[in-house]
């Protein structure tokens, strides 16, 4: 036991406390000079635990809801109605100044007090780990930003009560009495503190059987004596410890300890802080990505005396989830809400996270801000299935263009086109597929993806048209008339000679044009003039036989023997029928194949019915 020094006055009582780790503490109650407040003509009556939370001297009854509007440091107006204290029975306006005043040792500043029972009832449903968290949160907040610090949390059942003790070596508490004022917070000046509602400590306290706070050589004891809750303030005779010690006795069953173990092992201990839980250090976890971003936070504005939600630049630390964890949003190391995404990371936000007053859900839209900010860092490690999830589409449409393009490419590939409805005989989806393009039906993708696809991916029609233009340009650029190949040094001249000479080539081409013209004419309403030209495969390995342009220009490859050596043979005619079918459809879809069959019939009939005419017109080709 430590040695006791001289007390400021004779102790009126001594309390011996044994804490969770088996240590004993003596607490002496001594007289201290009260500091009277300036008279303001107002008196306070408190009806603790009865119908109204408080009654002012002019008879006004205070419920939880109107309390908060008058309380320093709290301007929240969105408290859920289930948190309201029960209303006073109708007609009960009696002002009762006596009962609770007995429990107060010093005069209080302000008009309001609060019923411990009422507040306890409000917090009864909160899980133990969330109440103990409040103590650790206060300890974390007691360290100056970026400064090292140590927190020792101990808890366990001693056979009688569940003991909780939280010690820190932080700033300590200047005005211990402030701890009793619900909604009074000293954390209005920074969005880098976790606390802000001025109620965390009291929430845990109000359901405790007894509690003790020690800081800066002073001690506040919360006791129950003869059925009354009593608060005693005293000076500690032994050398004051650095920081703060908070101890509470709770009516929790022993197995609460495992619940707390699980909870605190999920903490992401901030850099420079040592957090020990029942003597074992919570090991800091590696940050895999740090994302710098401007995010909505919460900050008190002294000018308007209200809480605002401005944006501030901050870091998001991405920490890999363990196998037993689900992705979670952390506020400066403390888990605050589930994070709806399908990547194995927690987001630890290095500033206040905007939350509902119960601190169990983040403000709507906040999660999307996180998704948008983190997507660029995560994209590379995501597989195509993950990238196709709705949350990626939803967030993706708010990312910048380069990120959106990466999302689309990772999710759908790069050689893609958007599906379009068929237009008459043209079925561009089929045509695009034939070009090796993957066609995506945007109607089957979620909203965000649909928007991105529309912005960054051409339609099947655009892809097909572009291909047609390129091919037509190539054919036009390489195409030449028979007459132009006159120069013997020219390769074209050489090929012309090889295929039987200029005249032969001219005649074969004339037949091909005539034949195709007959086929084109067979389709009512589509008749237009067919013309012909030659081309040479530039690459000897290429096998371009022929090309049909949208303007019905038939191009035949001079280096393909069939047209010149057997112009009426099956191979040449097959190519010509194929090309003429392109007059109806530039690509090779179902309609094209049907047109091919039709033209095969037309060609057969032509050869039978007009055999004489053909022989007369092209005798040299037989
Ligand atoms: N361990 C501690 N070290 C230093 N100050 C503390 C400590 N615990 C409590 N306090 C002081 O007591 C005040 C009240 O704490 P309480 O937990 O009730 O509210 P809060 O932390 O301000 O807000 P919240 O309701 O969000 O927790 C704090 O603002 C802080 O000034
Ligand atoms: Mg707090």
Summarize the structure in words.
The chain is α+β, with helices and mostly antiparallel strands. It has four domains: 101-281, 2-Layer Sandwich (Heat Shock Protein 90), CATH 3.30.565; 289-381, no CATH class; 390-464, no CATH class; 479-621, no CATH class. Helices cover 30% and strands 21% of the residues. The protein contains 18 helices and 25 strands. The protein has an eight-stranded mixed β-sheet. A five-stranded mixed β-sheet has the order 14-17-20-18-19, covered by helices on one side. A hairpin with a 2-residue loop joins β9 and β10 (228-235). α3 crosses α4. The radius of gyration is 43 Å and the shape is rod-shaped. The model is unreliable at 35-105 (pLDDT under 50). Bound molecules: adenosine-5'-triphosphate (ATP) and magnesium ion.
Question: How many DSSP helices?
Answer: 18
Strand order in space, largest sheet: 10-9-8-11-7-6-12-13
Largest sheet: 8 strands, mixed
Give the DSSP E fraction (strand runs of 2 or more residues). Answer: 15-25%
Rg value = 43 Å
How many distinct folded domains? 4
Could you give the distance between the termini? 125 Å
Low-confidence stretches: 35-105
What does the secondary structure layout of this molecule look like, with pairings?
Elements lengths: L12 E6 L5 E6 L14 E2 L8 E3 L4 E2 L1 H7 L45 H8 L4 H14 L7 E9 L4 E7 L31 H7 L1 E8 L2 E8 L2 E8 L8 E7 L5 H9 L8 E5 L2 E2 L7 E8 L2 E3 L4 E3 L2 E10 L7 E4 L2 E5 L6 E5 L16 H13 L5 H4 L2 H7 L4 H12 L3 E3 L9 H7 L3 E3 L6 H10 L3 H19 L12 H8 L3 H20 L9 E5 L10 E3 L4 E5 L4 H4 L4 H12 L8 H20 L1 H7 L5
The structure holds adenosine-5'-triphosphate and magnesium ion.
């Amino acid at each position: 036991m430590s040695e006791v020094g001289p007390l400021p006055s004779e102790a009126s009582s001594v309390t011996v406390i044994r804490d969770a780790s088996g240590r004993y503490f003596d607490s002496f109650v001594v007289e201290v000079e009260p500091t009277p407040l300036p008279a303001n003509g107002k008196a306070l009556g408190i009806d603790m635990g009865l119908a109204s939370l408080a009654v002012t001297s002019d008879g006004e009854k205070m419920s939880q809801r109107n309390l908060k509007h008058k309380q320093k440091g709290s301007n929240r107006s969105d408290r859920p109605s289930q948190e309201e204290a029960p209303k006073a029975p109708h007609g009960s306006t009696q002002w009762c100044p006596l009962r609770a005043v007995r429990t107060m040792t010093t005069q209080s500043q302000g008009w309001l007090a609060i019923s411990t029972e009422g507040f306890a009832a409000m917090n009864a449903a909160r899980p133990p780990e969330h109440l103990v968290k409040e103590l650790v949160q206060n300890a974390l907040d007691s360290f100056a930003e970026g400064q090292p610090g140590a927190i020792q949390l101990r808890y366990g059942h001693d056979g009688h009560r569940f003991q909780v003790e939280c010690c820190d070596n932080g700033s300590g508490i200047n005005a211990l009495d402030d701890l009793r004022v619900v909604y009074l917070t000293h954390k209005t000046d920074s969005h880098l503190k976790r606390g802000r509602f001025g109620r965390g400590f009291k929430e845990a306290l109000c359901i405790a059987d007894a509690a003790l706070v020690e800081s800066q050589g002073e001690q506040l004891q919360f006791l129950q004596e003869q059925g009354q809750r009593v608060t005693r303030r005293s000076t500690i005779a032994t050398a004051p410890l650095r920081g703060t010690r908070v101890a509470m006795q709770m009516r929790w069953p022993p197995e609460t300890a495992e619940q707390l173990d699980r909870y605190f092992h999920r903490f992401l201990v901030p850099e420079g802080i040592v957090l020990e839980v029942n003597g074992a250090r919570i090991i800091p976890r590696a940050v895999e990505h740090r994302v710098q971003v401007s995010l909505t936070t919460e900050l008190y504005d002294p000018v308007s005396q209200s809480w605002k939600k401005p944006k501030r630049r901050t870091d998001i630390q991405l920490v890999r989830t363990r196998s037993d964890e689900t992705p979670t949003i952390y506020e400066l190391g403390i888990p605050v809400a589930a994070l709806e995404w399908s990547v194995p990371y927690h987001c630890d936000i290095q500033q206040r996270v905007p939350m509902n007053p119960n601190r169990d859900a983040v403000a709507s839209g906040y999660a999307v801000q996180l998704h948008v900010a983190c997507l660029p860092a995560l994209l590379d490690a995501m597989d195509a299935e993950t990238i196709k999830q709705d949350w990626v589409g939803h967030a993706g449409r708010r990312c910048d263009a380069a990120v959106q393009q990466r999302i689309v490419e990772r999710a759908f590939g790069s050689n893609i086109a958007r599906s379009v409805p068929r237009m008459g005989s043209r079925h561009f989806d089929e045509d695009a597929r034939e070009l090796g393009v993957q066609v995506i039906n945007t109607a089957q993708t979620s909203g965000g993806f649909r928007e991105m696809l529309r912005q960054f991916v051409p339609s099947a029609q655009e892809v097909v048209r572009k291909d047609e233009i390129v091919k037509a340009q190539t054919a036009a650029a390489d195409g030449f008339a028979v007459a132009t190949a006159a120069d013997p040094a020219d390769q074209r001249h050489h090929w012309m000679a090889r295929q039987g000479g200029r005249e032969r080539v001219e005649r074969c081409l004339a037949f091909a044009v005539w034949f195709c013209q007959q086929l084109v004419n067979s389709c009512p309403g589509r008749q237009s003039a067919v013309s012909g030209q030659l081309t040479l495969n530039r690459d000897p390995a290429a096998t371009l036989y022929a090309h049909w342009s949208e303007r019905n220009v038939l191009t035949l490859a001079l280096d393909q023997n069939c047209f010149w050596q057997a112009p009426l043979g099956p191979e040449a005619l097959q190519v010509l029928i194929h090309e003429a079918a392109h007059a109806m459809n530039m690509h090779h879809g179902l309609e094209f194949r049907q047109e091919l069959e039709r033209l095969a019939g037309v060609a057969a009939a032509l050869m039978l019915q007009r055999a004489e005419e053909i022989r007369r017109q092209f005798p040299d080709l037989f």
